[in-house]
Amino acid sequence: MCKPSATIVCFGVPDDQTYAFPYLKFFRANLTMIASVTPDPGVDFPEAVQVMESGSFGSVAPLYTHVLRLEEAQQALRMMADCSDGVIKMIFDIPA
């Protein structure tokens, strides 16, 4: 589901040690795959999470420039790729 020469970014923690995928199709399409590992705040930053949850940190709003709904993910990715609308960092608002 990628155009030729596209880049695939894999994020999240995998459940399995090995994932099978059609490598020949991947190869022929000249795709690039990037693994993206981000810190787990519950493990890596427990004190920071506690401070933010307590409200003593203040507003986190200055840490991002845009808030989008998850349904707007395609638009968000386009904005980030094009560096449009002054985007620096965005978050998704996911209703509980």
The low-confidence runs, each spanning 5 or more residues with pLDDT under 50, are none
Strand content: 15-25%
Q: How many beta-strand runs?
A: 4
> pLDDT average, as an integer?
87
SSE ordering:
EHEHHEHE
Strand order across the largest sheet: 1-2
Range of helix content: 25-40%
In total, the number of domains comes to 2
Structural class by secondary-structure content: alpha/beta
The coarse overall form would be: extended
Total count of helical runs of at least 4 residues? 4
Largest sheet: 2 strands, parallel
Radius of gyration from the alpha-carbon trace, in angstroms = 17 Å
* Alpha-carbon distance between the two ends: 30 Å
Q: Which secondary structure elements does this structure contain, and how are they paired or packed?
A:
Layout: E1 7-11, H1 23-28, E2 32-36, H2 41-44, H3 46-54, E3 66-69, H4 73-82, E4 90-93
Parallel strand pairs: 1-2, 3-4
Tell me about this structure:
This protein is an alpha/beta fold and 96 residues long. The protein folds into two domains: 1-38, no CATH class; 40-96, no CATH class. It contains four helices and four strands, in the order E-H-E-H-H-E-H-E.
